[in-house]
């Protein structure tokens, strides 16, 4: 698995050295750097689609027909003219002025900055929604710095990471570069696994999708991937609408969508503040609504909200200053109001909103009584990239099937995740599928559950019982570790490292397969061949009367109870070795930090 955090750190460290050596401020440097990341990622996707187009391509006179812009349009992909391709920019001669290059308007170019500006303009010509969006200030950079930046971002790891890569790296750079730009309370990037969970549950297939707090467009990207994976074309079946108050984020969203061959109708700036404006006039019109809105926003003008309508359950509490002190239930009401008669919504919300009191509780009661609350999922700490707070995922469905019309599925997933590092957790694809499987069974979609079991068997390459496979793979891993230890000890000194690496690769392969087997077994133990059952500590289907008894709480933990204590199956020695390794890493990090502090103090003469 690609270590994206290390990638970000490496990219930042290299780019920041250059920023420190330039005369540009962080704000001047930020967007152009993101533009180069955009160029690199666009080129990666361009080459991927080009390979698809060239497969089985007809030839004339023994020569394969060259690809054209129309070929990429047919695949909903962004076409890059030669002069806008990353490799072209990377391999230009050192002396641009002597290369005889001309821009799209036929004027001579004498600097690398002019060449990169021209590349951006050529891309804007390919996609109308990008006109005036891409950075065009590259002549502010010296050729030397720009050349170094192009080299830094020519990182093969960018080819291997899907999803909202620009958004993820954008936030990292933005937080590092200019925290004042990203200082709005409650505003932070949505992690990929949460976005995937939302998309998987609302299952967009066609129609109008709105994200009224769209940021860098991660919800749109994942929805497009979901639709395309079903064999349909997201560009022709979906219409994406976005609102984004921060214009920087809206620019990034447009760039991100273009890279993925998607089109979005986006409004940005003050007139796109969703609290006060329905910028696209979509109330009651959306098939899908997805969002990760800012949590716990205060000082929202109550009169402006009331005049903007979209409040089917009334206003939340208003203070003496005629302000909404916490806007969570404004967002919740808006999301509901955007849906058409069969629409679905999925969104991230502060955990406190599931049980807040006062007017919030009154609104929540009215909402639950509609029968349109579909599912609630509790998410643990450390899922967000820059925040450690827990959250909940809310799902509405105005077209629920009759058997579950007056029921709500509660899932408590706070203890179900994979640790990426000490400050970040996520759901793996298999964990996402397991959580999704609970929703399928709640909806009576047993065929999808059965297909997942078959997918597990295919991935494991065996039809044996999952529990049996877990046991066999665990034993193999133990034997291999013992074998590795002996082999390394027996190896000559110069061969020890090579021997260890060879065994590490084998152990990693078995461990990965074992992880899949454990997830399969975890699912099968609870639901067998496809019979939904409430599982203590994990999931419960509650009726409206049960929710009323709980004071209209929508907190999953209030319904699912506590899971019985299970043997976690961890090998004590193995876990202690992992902890020791992590401790050594932390000590090294601490030593590096102390060295940096000491050096800074010396430079300050202290």
Automatic annotation (TrEMBL):
Keyword Iron in annotation: no
Coiled coil: 470-501
The EC number(s) this enzyme carries: 2.1.1.72
SUPFAM superfamilies, per database record: S-adenosyl-L-methionine-dependent methyltransferases
Catalyzed reaction equations: a 2'-deoxyadenosine in DNA + S-adenosyl-L-methionine = an N(6)-methyl-2'-deoxyadenosine in DNA + S-adenosyl-L-homocysteine + H(+)
Alphabetical keyword list: Coiled coil, Methyltransferase, Restriction system, S-adenosyl-L-methionine, Transferase
Single GO molecular function: methyltransferase activity
Domain N6 adenine-specific DNA methyltransferase N-terminal: 7-151
GO terms classed as biological process: methylation
All copies of domain DNA methylase adenine-specific, residue ranges: 164-451
Key word Methyltransferase present: yes
Pfam families to which the protein is assigned, alphabetical: HsdM_N, N6_Mtase
Family label: Belongs to the N(4)/N(6)-methyltransferase family.
Protein name: site-specific DNA-methyltransferase (adenine-specific)
Organism name: Megasphaera lornae
Source organism phylogeny: Bacteria, Bacillati, Bacillota, Negativicutes, Veillonellales
